[in-house]
């Protein structure tokens, strides 16, 4: 039995697949996590584009902690959604694209925050635009996962 098949056969995967409210409950947590992560990602990108330019970056630090909590929520809830149908998701282009965009969005987010904290002006706007496109692309690919098999 493949590793993915054994994941799908696990007691928790069966529970997620075969009980009425577990999957909807987990995907709701996933949506909340997404709102936190992408919401904060957008706030930093808009700040780099000049919105709220008088807000000191240091005062946005608590948002960073919240963003990592959101990432934690989505990695945990995402893995639970994933194991319920691992072989299906892993072969889906929308799912692969989503994960790739998420990794890129997280790297660009960290770069952007470091630049803002170092107060090094320059191509923050370009980085901010890339960040916006990556986060919005990840959400779109995530949503299309339910439609494009
Ligand atoms: C910050 C990170 C993440 C964001 C912003 C995100 C975003 C999304 C979005 C927008 C959806 C569609 C939700 C819906 O249909 O209502 C989704 C679904 C899903 N996500 Fe994520 N996700 C993240 C991380 C992950 C991770 C790390 C995994 C697993 C390794 C994952 C696995 C899934 C799965 C399996 C679905 C499927 C839903 C379905 O069609 O039933 N996600 N995600």
Write a structural description.
The protein is mainly alpha-helical and 149 residues long. It has one domain. Helices cover 78% and strands 0% of the residues. The protein has 7 helices and no strands. Helix 3 (22-48) runs antiparallel to helix 4, helix 3 packs parallel to helix 6 and helix 6 (93-117) packs antiparallel against helix 7. The longest helix is centred in the N-terminal third of the chain and has 27 residues, at 22-48. It is elongated, with a radius of gyration of 18 Å. It starts with a helix and ends in a 5-residue tail after the last helix. The structure holds protoporphyrin IX containing FE (HEM). Residues 27, 30-31, 34, 37-38, 71, 74-75, 78-79, 81-82, 89, 102, 138-139, 142-143, 145-146 line the site of protoporphyrin IX containing FE.
Layout of secondary structure:
Layout: H1 3-8, H2 11-18, H3 22-48, H4 61-84, H5 86-90, H6 93-117, H7 124-144
Helix pairs in contact: 2-4, 3-4, 3-6, 3-7, 6-7
Protoporphyrin IX containing FE (HEM) is lined by residues 27, 30-31, 34, 37-38, 71, 74-75, 78-79, 81-82, 89, 102, 138-139, 142-143, 145-146.
List SSEs in N-to-C order: HHHHHHH
Major sheet size, sense and barrel closure: none
Rg, rounded, reads: 18 Å
Helical fraction equals over 70%
Number of strand elements = 0
Which cofactors or ions or other ligands sit in this model? protoporphyrin IX containing FE
Which structural class matches the secondary elements? mainly alpha
User: Helix count, per DSSP?
Assistant: 7
In terms of DSSP E residues, the strand content is under 5%
Give the termini separation.
Answer: 24 Å
Principal-axes geometry comes out as elongated
Q: Mean pLDDT, nearest integer?
A: 92
Number of domains: 1
Low-confidence stretches: none
């Amino acid at each position: 039995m493949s590793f993915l098949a054994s994941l799908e056969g696990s007691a928790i995967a069966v529970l997620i697949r075969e009980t009425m409210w577990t999957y909807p409950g987990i995907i709701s947590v996933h949506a909340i996590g997404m709102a936190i992560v992408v919401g904060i990602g957008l706030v930093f990108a808009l700040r780099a584009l000049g919105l709220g330019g008088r807000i000191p970056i240091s005062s946005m630090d608590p948002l960073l902690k919240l963003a990592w909590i959101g990432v934690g929520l989505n990695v945990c809830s995402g893995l639970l959604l994933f194991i319920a149908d691992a072989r299906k998701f892993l072969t889906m282009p929308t799912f692969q694209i989503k994960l790739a965009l998420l990794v890129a969005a997280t790297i660009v987010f960290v770069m952007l925050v470091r630049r803002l904290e170092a107060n090094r002006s320059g191509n923050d706007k370009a980085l901010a635009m890339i960040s916006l496109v990556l986060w919005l692309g990840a959400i779109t690919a995530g949503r299309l996962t339910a439609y494009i098999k």
